[in-house]
Amino acid sequence: MDKPSHLSIVLDLSPKQWHLAAQPGSPHPITLATFLSHLLAFLNAHIACKDENSLAIFGALPGKSILLYSSAAPVDDGDTEPADANTYRPFKLMDSIIMKSITREIDALGEPETEEPIGFVGALTKALCYINRVTTSNTTSGDRGVDPATLPDPRILIISVSPDQSSSYISVMNSIFSAQKLASFDLFYQKVTIDVCKIFGAESVFLQQAAHLTGGSYIDVDRPDALLQYLMMSFLAPPGLRQLITVPTQDKIDFRAACFCHKNIVDIAFICSVCLSIFCSPVPVCSTCRTKFPIKTLQRLNASRPNTTPGTPRPPTPANSLPRSTSIAPQSLPRSTSIVPQSLPRNASNGASTLR
Predict the structure, then answer these.
(1) What is the rounded CA–CA span in Å between residue 13 and residue 4?
(2) What is the CATH topology of the domain spanning 5-140+149-241?
(3) Element (H or E) spanning 279, and its range?
(4) Which UniProt keywords apply (predicted)?
(5) Residues 287-313: pLDDT tens digits?
């Protein structure tokens, strides 16, 4: 490990999901307290690997996201712990700060009747901003001759127990694209690896794509009681060492997307030919770029949609069923938006763009 490693952890702290994960009816129940004991041991191992390694923990709570711990932040007098001969003091101090921060934030939530959506996107965005600040910290001193090899090797570990939020699809994809190419102050580009540890619940479509596109690992934990072994064997090694050791890979990746109109995850979608916006059904006007499509094209796309019930034919959409405001003559459209069947490639003659 020639280069230092920076680890940012996005921690899912949804009280509802952790309560469900701890129920005796679960195949392998795990409580939040047990999970934190495994996590703290993993964090201590990360810090112990190299003196220059850094750490930041971001909590995703209902309706908000917050920085729980940063190894670069100064230690307050109230966080100091009495000396213990059986514990390494830096480890004990870090564990104490993390536990106090999590307890404080969870107690501040109270007991609301309905839980707000988890602030996962905010926590992921803050982790990327923190990494950008860590990798460009020398810009404040005006030193432009820093060797890129001395910059920390950044990565993000997402620990999730909540299902996907379809409404956050665009924000999650933008974060993935930002992690794919992070530019430092001297235009040195490096990829931020995103690892995912799914402890409870159904597999996450968005997080699978995040791990695959950034070269990370996606692990669906089958035995939460052996969580520490998963963390040590899969996520302790930095990206620079993973080419020398074998890490788990994904057998299948779900590349489905969420439509822009209803925020639902779809198997087959219709894509705007101008801005590539995704819709679950043909629309007369694109809500993103305001491109208008002819009625004949909409009818042809509607007829090409698969039947919702096997054996039930889909009736064609009559022209008079569309609103008058969407009745657009092809001659009135700009050439760039006029869709002519003859101009389409042979494999797309039906006018349907599918996303699988």
Answers:
(1) 28
(2) Rossmann fold (3.40.50)
(3) strand 278-279
(4) DNA damage, DNA repair, Metal-binding, Nucleus, Transcription, Transcription regulation, Zinc, Zinc-finger
(5) 888 888 888 888 888 887 776 544 444
